[in-house]
Specification:
Largest sheet: 5 strands, antiparallel
Number of helices: 3
Helix content: 10-25%
Order of helices and strands: EEHHEEEEEH
Shape: globular
Number of domains: 1
Radius of gyration: 16 Å
Structural class: alpha+beta
Strand order of the largest sheet: 3-4-5-6-7
Low-confidence stretches: none
CATH topology: Beta-lactamase
CATH class: Alpha Beta
Mean pLDDT: 89
Length: about 140
């Protein structure tokens, strides 16, 4: 991976309480769940495409995708649901991603045409059991509105 880049820390595959540097682990095993090395700039472009469909989906297909959110499944609420490869929470369309040592969030707020991208160099859950990127992404989303 060309520099500069994050160095990833993980507990996956390690004895309890120990961490490993996952920076050079090959992401290809992740197949459709990953296997992509990207930049924050790339993720910003992807966030806009994900939220608008522009450049990746026809307007009709994007509308079908936006209409696919399921609000009547366990864990869903009036403001939080999951659709076709996309979540919605408090108006933000987005998704997280994770490979050993790395955790990302890309979100799009339609009414502001705003994108938030957060990347952290760990996949170790917070004390609350959240993905490590969640507190960072939530702070950024609060700033944007």
């Amino acid at each position: 991976i060309a520099s500069p880049h994050l160095y990833g820390i993980t507990e996956q595959g390690q004895p309890d309480g120990q961490t490993a540097d996952a920076t050079d682990w090959n992401p290809l095993w992740g197949w459709a769940a990953g296997a992509v090395i990207s930049t924050v700039d790339d993720l910003e472009l992807w966030g806009t495409a994900l939220g608008t469909g522009e450049g990746i989906l026809s307007p009709e297909m994007q509308q079908l995708r936006l209409d696919s959110f399921l609000f009547d499944i366990p864990g869903a609420t009036d403001t939080r649901a999951y659709g076709l490869g996309l979540g919605i929470e408090n108006g933000w369309l987005g998704h997280t991603g994770e490979l050993p040592g790395f955790n990302t969030y890309v979100g799009y707020l339609p009414e502001r045409r705003a994108v938030v991208v957060a990347a952290v160099n760990s996949d170790i859950a917070t004390a609350d059991g959240e993905e490590p990127v969640t507190p960072v992404a939530n702070q950024l989303k609060e700033i944007v509105g």
